[in-house]
Amino acid sequence: MALLICEFARAMKKVAIIPARGGSKRIPKKNIRPFCGLPIIAYSIQNALKSGVFDSVIVSTDDEEIAQIAQSYQATIPFMRPKELASDTTPTIPVIAHAAQALHLSSTDLVCCLYPTAPLLLPEHIIKGLQKLMANPQKLYAFSCVRFDSNPYRGFLIEDETISMLFPEHSLSRSQDLKEVYHDAGAFYWGRVHAFCGGKNIFADHSLGISLPRIFVQDIDTLDDWELAELKYRFKHPTPPQPLCP
Q1: What is the pLDDT confidence band of residue 24, given thresholds at 50, 70 and 90?
Q2: Is there a domain that residue 170 lies in?
């Protein structure tokens, strides 16, 4: 039985799809902006390649400049993303479903959506996600998550100078007595092709959470976020990054 599972795993394609549209407004050219010496998308491409688990590393983009830079770091651009899937409000799942269909992947193949602004991620995190999904064939997704720094059960609102607890029943609870709560780390989403193409929600009981240490997680929505991410990266990587290709 174990041999059959291994043979099935080898036959199953595993594709990294990095969604990187142009037209970012809050941080112009966000997906190719220099980050500690390299375009930020280069880190996701190189981490996917270094993991050694993918048959191909694809960038889904509508932008020619992003495509050229991605190719220079050894990613593949087999198609250009249609404009209707590259707006500010386009969700991730339809973008990945489009890529899977354009690549003619089988419903049983695996895809890893890897965000282009996840430079703190390590190849071993990607591998761990794959291993956990493969070990749980009843699950559809395995995605990166991180524990809330401050427990939201103790959170409150301030409205009209009035404080109201979100969970009044925990107003006197000690933090150490509360359940740990996690949120999406915004780094990677392993999933089965039929789940992406079927529009299955990622944040549900058919998914697995891969908890990452906070040092490897940073939302990058503002320039302040960007600077904080660079500080974290330099702390973990004192030596400047070197590209895999000339």
Answers
A1: confident
A2: no
Chain position carrying tokens 């795993």: 9
Q: Distance between CA 240 and CA 234 in Å, rounded?
A: 8
Inside any domain, residue 125: yes
Give me 66's structure tokens: 């992003």
Say if CB 146 and CB 183 are below 8 A apart.
yes
Instruction: List, in order, residues 6 or more apart from 112 with CB less than 8 Å away.
Output: 14, 15, 16, 17, 48, 54, 126, 129, 130, 188, 189, 190, 191
Cα 160 from Cα 245, distance rounded (Å) = 56
Integer Cα distance of 99 and 87 in angstroms: 16
What's the number of domains the chain is made of? 1
What span, in angstroms and rounded, lies between the C-alpha atoms of 90 and 83?
Answer: 10
Does 243 reside within a domain?
Answer: no
Does the pLDDT at position 2 exceed 70?
no
Q: Mean pLDDT across the stretch 105-115? A: 97
Pairing of strands 182-192, 110-114: antiparallel
CATH code, domain with 201: 3.90.550.10
- 223 and 28 in contact (C-beta within 8 Å)? no
How far does the chain reach from its first CA to its final CA, in angstroms? 44
Output phi, psi for 161, to 5 deg: 60, 20
Q: What is the pLDDT of residues 143-154, one digit of tens each?
A: 999 999 999 999
Task: Please state at what angle helix 123-134 crosses helix 40-51, rounded to 10 degrees.
Answer: 50
Q: How many residues does the chain have?
A: 246
